[in-house]
Amino acid sequence: MSHFDSDVALVTGAGSGIGRATARRFAAEGARVVVSDVDPDGGQETVDLIDDEGGEATFIEADVTDEDAVADLIAEIDDTYGRLDVAHNNAGMAPPIEAIEDVDLESYQAAMDVNLTGVVNCLKHELPLMVETDGGAIVNTGSTASIGGGNSPLAYVAAKHGVLGVTRVAATQYAADGIRVNTVCPTTVETPLLEGLSEEELEQFSAGIPMDRIGQPDEVAAAVVWLCSPESSFITGQPLVIDGGRFAAVE
Fold this sequence. Notes:
Elements: E1 8-12, H1 17-28, E2 32-37, H2 40-52, E3 56-61, H3 67-81, E4 86-89, H4 105-132, E5 136-141, H5 154-174, E6 179-186, H6 199-206, H7 217-228, E7 239-242
Parallel strand pairs: 1-2, 1-4, 2-3, 4-5, 5-6, 6-7
Helix pairs in contact: 1-2, 1-7, 3-4, 4-5
């Protein structure tokens, strides 16, 4: 029997990349998956892929930066299924790299809204439903930028550091309710965000990774699903770094 038979799983940002891979893996493990994204075409494509693979999924469009939209999303899950067992708060965006003195505050705020406030909005409405239905597990998508920085975009680093902090607060506050909250922290992963880059640019992303390549969405999805499973039942409030050995190689 799968760990997720008949469980209800929500994945935001599931219209492509890591979110799509996670949604498909949850479905393959028996979960009833709610695919959510601001892109209805991408979201429906994920649902269609899951249907073709014999899984069960539905699409609900929602913008995680809009708390009312997130509240409606969780209310629809409650009305349809009466429960929420696992969630992957994955929706995000990557702003351009700029020197601090050149940062455009409008784009900075937009990145913070999606990458950090979006996670807070989701947690705010997911957690009460999980409390009502005897617990659950949540994984937020952070980044190696959650624990580092370097030459990454300022807003991205600030937001992803915030995601890890929010994860730890939520994990502490809801542990007694049987809810675990963790963060996955991948390095560069082959997603649509990298489309259009040259081979030379892609090689620059893999520079410094001992495994000499960037990550794949399925590799992150596997970690997310494991963190939501009973096999990680004593793990909460933690960052799981998925980086091909990059941090291990730092002197």
